[in-house]
């Protein structure tokens, strides 16, 4: 039986395809979801989103930094996960995950995170991951704590949205903590 490291029990991680544009475009209209994951961007045309998806599909990773689609085992695109600030010298990286609203609370984010961590910790020799979580994103705070991440810091008044400033929390997980989660 073949095992694919990018596949879990519910989702698989894969490259973004040009045909994914419409799901990402529709998600752009969910301002609350955008606010939880990043920021609310200016509106983008369908052609602009198509160009973005084509660019993502053709560019591939930048070193160990990459953006991947999250899809169910049935092939339904449910979100994305990306890595950044990949520091091979110190073995640290950050990531962000975004699940389209209609797929929230189905375990897709947690499984996608664990698939990503498996690859970065077990294949690329990273030893620590950091996640930045906005103080108003209760679901993400609970997710990271449930996954065993440790709150390592709070950056005060870092995020401006809805006319006010919010804190940003830093969550970390080391490879040894990850190993304990697996057992």
TrEMBL record:
The keyword Metal-binding does not apply. Keywords: Transferase. Residues 11-176 form the N-acetyltransferase domain. One of its GO terms (molecular function) is acyltransferase activity, transferring groups other than amino-acyl groups. The keyword Transcription regulation does not apply. Pfam families: Acetyltransf_3. PANTHER family: ACETYLTRANSFERASE, SPERMIDINE N(1)-ACETYLTRANSFERASE. This is N-acetyltransferase. The lineage of its organism: Bacteria, Bacillati, Bacillota, Bacilli, Bacillales.
């Amino acid at each position: 039986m073949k095992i694919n490291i990018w596949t879990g029990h519910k989702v698989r991680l894969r490259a973004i395809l040009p045909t994914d544009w419409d799901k990402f475009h529709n998600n752009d209209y969910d301002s609350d979801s955008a606010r939880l994951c990043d920021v609310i961007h200016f509106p983008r045309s369908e052609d602009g989103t198509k160009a973005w998806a084509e660019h993502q599909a053709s560019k591939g990773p930048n070193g160990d930094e990459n953006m991947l689609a999250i899809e169910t085992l049935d092939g339904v695109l449910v979100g994305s996960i990306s890595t950044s600030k990949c520091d091979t010298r110190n073995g640290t990286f950050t990531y962000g995950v975004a699940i389209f609203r209609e797929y929230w609370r189905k375990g897709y984010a947690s499984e996608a995170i664990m698939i990503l961590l498996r690859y970065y910790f077990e294949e690329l020799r990273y030893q620590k991951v950091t996640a930045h979580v906005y103080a108003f994103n209760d679901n993400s705070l609970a997710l990271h704590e449930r996954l065993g991440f440790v709150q390592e810091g709070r950056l005060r008044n870092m995020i401006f949205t809805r006319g006010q400033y919010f804190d940003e929390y830093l969550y970390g997980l080391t490879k040894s903590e990850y190993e304990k989660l697996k057992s």
